[in-house]
């Protein structure tokens, strides 16, 4: 599974996890025109699910600021959002769904069955293992779901459980 990052330079490059992935060679810079790409887009209506594995050769995360997310021009491809997860990054720790670029990529890889790669891209971040720890039961459930509908149901269940 190829991992790509589209860096928009909307935030501090020292804190941008996508920049670090590119510097370390754990992701490639996104080039327009790539085919068969899953595009992580938090504004999408469809969730990432294990069934996407056969439809895609790679995935791209847009490294942008959450404050400017509505300004992003999303690349073409299979737009997918992530189901309910909790951030472990130092900027948004404990905040549901405000994941960093590396957390979004790792979660997607995990759900698609690439758990080792998910762990590998989180390793350079001292809080990376914490993301997997905080979301372990959710990620396991999502990775075993049969389709997008089941992911949606699980996501809603986890969201309700946290709000109790």
Structure characteristics:
164 residues, alpha/beta, 5-stranded parallel sheet, 5 helices, 5 strands, globular
Question: Can you describe this structure?
Answer:
- The protein has 164 residues and is α/β, with parallel strands linked by helices.
- It has one domain (2-83, 98-163).
- The protein has helices at 17-23, 101-111, 115-122, 128-144, 148-163, and strands at 2-7, 28-29, 37-40, 58-63, 78-80.
- It has a five-stranded parallel beta sheet, with helices on one face.
- The mean pLDDT is 90.
Short description:
With 164 residues, this protein is α/β, with parallel strands linked by helices. The protein contains five helices and five strands.
- For the secondary structure, the number of strands is 5
Poorly predicted regions are none
Shape, per Cα inertia axes: globular
Counting helices, strands and paired strands, the structural category is alpha/beta
Biggest beta-sheet profile: 5 strands, parallel
How would you describe the oligomerization state of the chains in this entry? Answer: single chain
Helix percent band: 25-40%
What fraction of the residues are assigned to beta strands by DSSP?
A: 5-15%
Order of SSEs: EHEEEEHHHH
Q: Figure out the total of helices.
A: 5
Give the number of domains: 1
Please report the distance between the alpha carbons of the first and last residues: 37 Å
CA gyration radius, whole angstroms:
14 Å
* Strands in their spatial order, largest beta sheet: 2-1-4-3-5
Residue-averaged pLDDT: 90
């Amino acid at each position: 599974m190829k991992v790509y990052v589209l860096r928009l330079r909307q935030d501090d490059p020292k804190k941008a996890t996508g920049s670090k992935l590119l510097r370390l060679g754990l992701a490639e810079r996104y080039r327009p025109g790539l085919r068969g790409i899953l595009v992580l887009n938090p504004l999408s209506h469809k969730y990432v699910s294990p069934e996407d594995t056969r439809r895609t050769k790679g995935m791209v995360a847009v490294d942008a600021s959450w404050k400017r997310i509505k300004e992003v021009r999303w690349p073409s491809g299979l737009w997918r959002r992530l189901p309910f997860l909790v951030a472990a990054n130092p900027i948004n720790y404990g905040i549901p769904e405000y994941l960093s670029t590396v957390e979004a990529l790792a979660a997607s890889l995990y759900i698609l069955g690439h758990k080792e790669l998910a762990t590998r891209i989180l390793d350079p971040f001292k809080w990376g293992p914490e993301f997997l720890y905080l979301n372990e039961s959710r990620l396991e459930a999502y990775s075993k779901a049969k389709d997008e509908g089941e992911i949606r149901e699980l996501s809603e269940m986890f969201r309700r459980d946290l709000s109790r």
